[in-house]
Amino acid sequence: MERQIASSLLSIGAVFLRPEEPFTWASGIKSPIYCDNRLTLSAPRVREQVENGLARLVQRYYPDCEMLMGTSTAGIAHAAITATILDLPMGYVRGEAKTHGRTNRIEGRMAPGTKVVVIEDLISTGGSSIEVVEALREAGADVLGIVSIFTYGMKRGLERIAAANTENHSLCNLDVLVDVAVEEGRITADWKGRILAFRDNPQDESWIKQS
Questions:
Q1: In this structure, which of 117, 142, 158, 193 has its CB flanked by the most CB atoms within 10 Å?
Q2: In the prediction, which pLDDT does 166 show?
Q3: Cβ atoms of residues 94 and 54 within 8 Å
Q4: The whole model's pTM is what?
């Protein structure tokens, strides 16, 4: 499934590799990869593949799950579709509480003790996902784990998730994706190593300067 998802994400440009002309993240980090899993929503075949994959991960790792919670905003649609497949209730967690109305941060009816799985589109440094986990726990949820479409597998992200006493299961990861990208002729074998070097140390830009 990982290889199928990797090929599909590459085919629609949801994960885009451009090592020769790096992207600049908001943090200023130069990156050879850009991920926009929102594009899966407008590609019906890939969308079906992704949502069924997310459902299988929830069933496999969290059979006791009682509710799905999407991260705002990227995880909301994926949580809704996956919840429909699994016939589960869903909700989502705002980046911050509303300043009007009921000032909710968590949307959806969730009783204390509810066994929840967080649905995320991308795991990079893990910060936003952990914020969602912590908000749900503060509201009384029993957070079983995080299920995501794609993960870079960055050390900082892995450490943050472990420190938060939770776990993540992704449909696809960077190691598999670059293997598929080489096989499909999207990047060279040399660039595979450079991209993984970036993943292992994003602040070190020496991967750009390698000949």
A1: 117
A2: 96
A3: no
A4: 0.92
